[in-house]
Design a protein that fits this description.
heterodimer, A: 159 residues, alpha+beta, Arc Repressor Mutant, subunit A, Glutaredoxin, 2 domains, five-stranded mixed beta sheet, 7 helices, 5 strands, 13% strand, elongated, B: 437 residues, alpha/beta, four-stranded parallel beta sheet, 17 helices
Chain lengths: 159, 437
């Protein structure tokens, strides 16, 4: 179900916790699985649960509670823009509007070519860098002017 | 980022986070001194108490007192946790501490573990800052390789293991018992207290949780003595503090300044008001803290006691600045949406109440407000506050109450005239929250 490399990464996470507390690694294991698969189908969640020796429903509870897990297929690149108040005061909402216009989609939608999914995010703890967006959960992009958004989209399109 | 203060002093962005540079700045000297001189744990806790260090995550609880709650003679495992789940809108200080000075946190946690007899610790890092999590992992490797973490630290009989735990997007995990649930691999839903974590914490064992900045302050307190740290600030408000300034200023960013600095000076450090516009309102301690009118804020100093006297909270030190082009109804609508979205759903008053607050503020903003809506909002907040397991319900209520208290006439105008007091084009150009239809 998961590659040898992903399993090795999960094993490293398991080793951080007491030997009888493997479930503590579930958040990392789901993240690693999502990076490999692009999103988290139920079978993958079930596999992760089995790997950690926990009930599948407990792993699903975690996957559905934390909002960076994707339980539905998404575009090749997910862009999450923070529109919370401190970011909004420094252009976060305007950046979101510009992304919608450029991609021709609204929040929680995916472009017809399957390239981009656009999300509205809550506080990322980077308000001083507004406008801020997160690309594919792991790359934080700061001070995103229109020019920088254009560059970012062009770069992602080539990947 | 200011290069003054203690934690941020001498840092040069991404270039100086490593062990070598930290040691060159005097890093790990506090830990080395403690180990070499076999300083007793109670002496360390006494220094913490003398320093008047108060929790930097938002609650401002005296750190030394918290450490003294850990049962010294407990026979089994004891844990330490660092709360780096920084997601309170306006707060972005711990991210800078972790990426630019991670060893200060590691040293502070190691000293804490020594003082409380903890054998293992976890640093819970906010989900959205993956690069910071990776850097912290690298810093941990450096510390282990240098004999500063792990078995027999610096050749002594003291051992402590520290690991990074990565969150994945849930504001509620900044609540300390939700954070523990999350480390245990569960939904981050807060626990009933009591029992408090010092008696029943991670995996049911005694646990102490402190904020990133709190831990990062510890080595400096050991080096300069509790009284030296206290004297940097003012009585009952010891030391320096990082303030995250965001919103309508020319230079948003983190500024580490002595406690008690006048707000006007901090505003000046952040480059003053954007476009030279007039200050309207400030949320002085993160989005949960009551908003204060600009005029009140200009008379405050940046410390727990002054801000509390003015009717708000210093909280996490997140200063959100709003100028005269801001529609306060629109601003509150966005905050109320946040709490509605982030309520964990465990307690009915919060789960239902936050949705209610958002929908009522939303309809006022959109010209559908009713004459008794302000009474309704106050009634809903009254029915949330104090009736939930954790403080998220209170955190959702305090903005609503304070926005109505200080800017009630703006809400009334909205309800009566079905439009903003601040013209839309002024908002679009100025406050930037507004979107053209």
């Amino acid at each position: 179900m998961l590659s040898h490399e992903s399993l090795q990464q999960i094993d490293r996470e398991i080793a951080k916790y007491p030997h009888d507390q493997k479930q503590s690694a579930v958040m990392s294991a789901l993240r690693i699985a999502q990076v490999e698969k692009g999103w988290l189908p139920k079978e993958v969640i079930e596999f992760v649960a089995g790997y950690l020796g926990m009930p599948a429903i407990a792993a699903y509870e975690v996957a559905s509670f934390y909002n960076m897990y994707d339980l539905e297929p998404i575009g090749r690149h997910k862009i999450t823009v923070c529109t919370n108040l401190p970011c909004a005061l420094s252009g976060g909402v305007h950046a979101g509007e510009y992304l919608k216009e450029k991609l021709g989609i609204g929040f929680n939608e995916t472009t017809p070519d399957g390239m981009f999914t656009l999300k509205e995010g809550e506080c990322m703890g980077a308000c001083g860098d507004a406008p801020v967006m997160l690309v594919n959960n792991h790359r934080m992009c700061s001070w995103m002017t229109k020019e920088k958004i254009d560059q970012m989209l062009a770069e992602l399109e080539s990947k | 980022m200011s290069a003054s203060g203690l934690i941020l002093a001498g840092l040069d962005g991404d270039r100086t986070w490593g062990l070598h540079d930290y040691v060159a700045r005097g890093g790990y000297s506090a830990l080395k001194k403690i180990i070499a001189e076999k300083i007793p744990p109670e002496t360390i806790i006494a220094e913490l108490k003398a320093s008047s260090l108060r929790g930097r995550g938002g609650a401002g609880f005296p750190t030394g007192l918290k450490w003294s709650f850990m049962p010294r003679s407990f026979p089994g495992a004891k844990y330490l946790a660092c709360n780096s789940d920084e997601g309170e809108p306006g707060t972005f200080k711990d991210r800078d501490i972790l990426r630019y000075n991670p060893h200060a946190v590691i040293e502070g946690m190691t000293i804490a573990a020594y003082a409380m007899g903890c054998e293992r610790g976890y640093n819970y890092i906010h989900g959205e800052i993956f690069d910071v999590y990776q850097r912290f992992e690298d810093a941990l490797e450096e510390a282990r390789a240098g004999g500063l973490l792990g078995q027999n630290i610096l050749g002594s009989d003291f051992s402590f293991d520290l690991f990074a735990h990565h969150g994945y997007g849930a504001y509620i995990c900044g609540e300390e018992t939700a954070l523990l649930e999350s480390i245990e691999g569960k939904k981050g839903q807060p626990r009933f207290k009591p029992p408090f974590p010092a008696s029943y914490g991670l995996y049911g064992k005694p646990t102490t949780i402190n904020n990133t900045e709190t831990f990062a302050s510890v080595p400096f307190i050991i080096n300069m003595g509790g009284e030296g740290f206290l004297n940097l600030g003012k009585p009952n408000n010891g030391g320096t503090k990082l303030f995250s300034v965001s919103g309508h200023v020319n230079r948003p960013g983190n500024f580490e300044v002595p406690m008690g600095m006048p707000f006007a000076e901090l505003l000046e450090m952040a480059g003053g008001m954007r476009g030279g516009r007039k200050l309207k309102a400030v949320i002085p301690g993160g989005s949960s803290a009551p908003v204060l009118p600009g005029g009140v804020m200009m008379d405050c100093t940046m410390d727990y006691d002054s801000i509390s006297k003015a009717g708000s909270m210093l909280g996490s030190g997140a200063v959100i600045v709003m100028d005269e082009t801001t529609c306060m109804v629109k601003a509150l609508e966005r905050l109320s949406y946040f709490y509605f979205e982030e309520s964990c759903g465990q307690c009915t008053p919060c789960r239902e109440g936050t949705g209610w607050l958002y929908r009522v503020v939303h309809r006022i903003e959109h010209g559908l407000g009713r004459p008794d809506d302000l009474d309704l909002l106050n009634s809903v907040t009254g029915n949330i506050m104090g009736r939930t397991i954790c403080a998220l319900g209170d955190a959702a209520s305090m903005p609503v109450q304070s926005f109505i208290k200080h800017f009630g006439s703006e809400f009334q105008y909205h309800i009566e005239n079905k439009k903003c007091l601040v013209p839309p084009e002024v908002q679009y150009q100025g406050s930037q929250i507004y979107v053209r239809p």
